[in-house]
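re the bet — no i am not wrong, look at it urself. input seq straight from the record:
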Amino acid sequence: MKPRLWKPSAILALIFLSASQTHAADIVWANAGNGNWSSAANWMPNQVPGVGDNAFITNSGNYTVTISADTSVNTVTVGGSSGTQTVALSGGTFTVAGTSIIGPQGSVTFSAGTLTGGGDVTITGILNWSAGIMAGAGRTILGSGGTANFTGSGIKGLNRTLENGGTIHYSGTVLAFGYTAIVAGIVNNLAGGVFNVTGEGDFNQSSAAAHAFNNSGTFNKTGAGTTTDFTAVAFNNSATMNVNAGTLNLNSGGSNAGVMDVAVGTTLNFNGTFSHAAGGTVSGAGTINFPGGTHNFAGQFAPTGQVNLNGATVNFNA
């Protein structure tokens, strides 16, 4: 029998196939204390998770894994059976390709850099966001039981979809939609989700795109003497919106098919083009202003406080 001859191209294909098969791995954080993601000694086996790898930060205990340089993985799973396991994104670009989970014991502290990639990141633990950019085709999902805190005056760029089924407390400022990129920033406050704005927090456009805040849960504006603006970000309400304290400026239109309640001593300003569907309600003893725009009401408009029409077109039973 003649010996089999292998073509060089076939040999190369086998080499590349072997390399790709051995590269992807499940890599587990092995340091019982704090450490940097980029140190191979912190992982088992002793290699830094890379493209195609699945990273697991699941050992119990209280510790922080810091990401400060560009990093790409397939998935990341955070959360043990006890303690708090924290991933701190403080710089670089963290790219996540596949569906990833931050469990009830897990925590994400996001103070700089970029979270991107096509994979959804679901958080049922804690998200603390003080600065940084969320981008890419993947969604950031705060699941039921999850809590997020948007704090400080650092730029929080939203260049992807953020879905909330838990509770978000927005006490900081500068939530920028389409930050330096022509990409839509979308917030979907899901049924059961609560979004609290407790101060001067705004929702503003950085670059023009179809930005929107879609409320199917509960949106609360609080903070006496404070003002929250939606600028170039449409507000679409199909559930409950409460102005409990301060002033809420809906500057860029939207829609209402749910309940909008304006408490005594507060102010709601409608601007842009608004459509109020049948079944929608606007009520309350606060002040409602229409500084401009066109507003079509098929639903109930039943405020008991002061209403000011300042150049807007308002059509009832439209």
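see?? The longest strand covers residues 85-96. told u. also Confidence is low (pLDDT under 50) at residues 1-22. so pay up
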